[in-house]
C-alpha cells in the first residue's frame, strides 16, 4: 500500500528503534528521565524558548497551552478551520471552559485587523479575550505557510492588549524548511508553541510544547492533571531526539514529492486541485469525475493507494518519509485509472 492518508503513519526508523532500546531512562514525573530532559532542552533551544515539555500528543499539547494561558469563562480567538477549533472535540470548552471566537482566514491566514476587532472590550457583558491561536503550517488550508510578517503583526496587536499567543505548529518544521525561515523566528511571535515529533519528523509518539519557564512550570501540572505525566518516557523521547536532530532537512523531499503529485494530477482531467502545494499536503476535488471523496478514496484503495476523504468531493494526500518518488508516480497512475474507470 502507498499510504498518503497522513504524515502520522510514518514508522520509526531503525535508528529510532535502536535509540529507544538503548535509552537511559528514569521517572519523568519526578523529572528524572535524562533522555526526556535532553529532548526538552534541545527543543527549547531550537525554538529559542526558555523551556519545553514533552507531551504524548499534539492535541494534548494544544489543550495544555489553552488551559494554562486562560481562565474559565474567557474567549479565545481561533481561525475558523484551525485544528484547535475543528479537530479537538471541543476540548477548549470541556476542559479549559473557554468559548471560541472564530475568524475566517484566507488560506489559514487571519487578517490582523480582524483579529484586532475581535478582541473584547472591557464590558460587563463580555467574556475577556484570553488567548489568540495561530496555526502554521495550516492543515485544512492544505499545508499553507502563514507568513512571518502576518504572525508578527498579530503578535504586536496581542502584546498591545496583553493577550498571549499560542502557535499550533504541528508542522512548524515543514513551514521552516519550505520558507527558509528559522523556527526561532516563527516562535518569537508567540508565547507558546506546540509541534509534533510524530508527523513528518517520523518519531513514533509525542509532541513538544515550549514557552517561558513560568509557562512550562504551570503547564507541567496541567499535563499531570490530563493524565499526560509519563514515567520512563525516555523510551519514546529517544526517537524524538533523532527526529529533531536528523529528520528536519529531509522534509524538503516530502515537499518535492507533493509538488510532483500536484503536477501529475493537474494533467488529469476529472480532478482539480483545491490548493497549490506549499509543503506536504494536497487537497484534490473529485466532483468532475462524478465521484464523491469517499468513492474516490475507495477506488484508490483498490489500486493500492490510501488517501483520506476530506469533504463531500475532496480527497487529501499527504507526503512523508515512507513514500518515495516512484510511489508518487504510481499514485498519479492510480488516480488516472480511477478517473478513467468512471
Ligand atoms: C495533527 C495535528 C494536531 C494534533 O496532533 P496529534 O498528535 O494528532 O494529537 C494539532 N494541530 C494540527 C495542525 C495538526 O495537524
From TrEMBL:
SUPFAM superfamilies assigned to the protein according to its UniProt record, in alphabetical order: PLP-dependent transferases
Keyword Methyltransferase: no
GO molecular function per UniProt: L-allo-threonine aldolase activity
Entry superkingdom: Bacteria
EC category: lyase
E.C. numbers: 4.1.2.48
InterPro entries according to UniProt: ArAA_b-elim_lyase/Thr_aldolase, Low_specificity_L-TA-like, PyrdxlP-dep_Trfase, PyrdxlP-dep_Trfase_major, PyrdxlP-dep_Trfase_small
A cellular-component GO term for this protein: cytosol
The protein's name in its UniProt record: Low-specificity L-threonine aldolase
Organism of derivation: Lentibacillus cibarius
Amino acid at each position: 500500500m502507498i499510504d498518503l492518508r497522513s504524515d502520522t503513519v510514518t514508522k520509526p526508523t531503525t535508528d529510532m528503534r535502536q535509540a529507544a532500546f538503548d535509552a537511559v531512562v528514569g521517572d519523568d514525573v519526578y523529572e528524572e528521565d535524562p533522555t526526556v530532559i535532553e529532548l526538552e532542552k534541545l527543543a527549547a533551544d531550537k525554538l529559542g524558548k526558555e523551556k519545553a515539555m514533552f507531551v504524548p500528543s499534539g492535541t494534548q499539547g494544544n489543550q495544555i497551552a489553552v488551559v494554562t494561558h486562560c481562565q474559565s469563562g474567557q474567549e479565545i480567538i481561533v481561525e475558523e478551520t484551525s485544528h484547535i477549533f475543528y479537530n479537538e472535540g471541543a476540548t477548549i470548552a470541556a476542559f479549559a471552559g473557554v468559548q471560541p471566537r472564530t475568524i475566517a482566514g484566507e488560506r489559514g491566514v487571519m487578517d490582523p485587523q480582524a483579529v484586532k476587532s475581535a478582541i473584547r472590550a472591557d464590558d460587563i457583558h463580555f467574556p475577556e479575550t484570553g488567548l489568540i491561536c495561530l496555526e502554521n503550517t495550516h492543515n485544512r488550508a492544505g499545508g499553507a505557510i502563514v507568513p512571518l510578517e502576518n504572525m508578527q503583526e498579530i503578535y504586536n496587536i496581542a502584546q498591545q492588549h496583553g493577550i498571549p499567543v499560542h502557535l499550533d505548529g504541528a508542522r512548524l518544521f515543514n513551514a521552516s524548511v519550505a520558507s527558509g525561515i528559522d523556527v526561532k523566528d516563527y516562535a518569537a511571535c508567540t508565547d507558546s508553541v506546540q509541534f509534533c515529533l510524530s508527523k513528518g519528523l517520523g518519531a513514533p509518539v509525542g509532541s513538544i510544547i515550549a514557552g517561558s519557564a513560568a509557562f512550562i512550570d504551570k503547564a507541567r501540572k496541567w499535563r499531570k492533571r490530563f493524565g499526560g505525566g509519563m514515567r520512563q518516557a525516555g523510551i519514546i523521547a529517544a526517537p524524538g531526539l533523532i527526529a529533531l536532530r536528523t529528520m528536519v532537512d529531509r522534509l524538503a523531499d516530502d515537499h518535492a514529492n507533493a509538488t510532483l503529485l500536484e503536477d501529475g494530477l493537474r494533467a488529469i482531467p476529472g480532478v482539480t486541485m483545491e490548493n497549490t502545494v506549499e509543503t506536504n499536503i494536497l487537497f484534490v476535488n473529485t466532483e468532475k469525475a462524478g465521484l464523491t471523496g469517499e468513492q474516490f478514496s475507495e477506488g484508490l484503495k483498490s489500486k493500492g493507494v490510501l488517501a483520506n476523504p476530506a469533504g463531500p468531493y475532496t480527497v487529501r494526500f499527504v507526503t512523508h518519509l515512507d513514500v518515495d518518488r516512484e510511489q508518487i508516480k504510481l499514485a498519479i497512475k492510480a488516480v488516472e485509472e480511477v478517473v478513467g474507470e468512471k
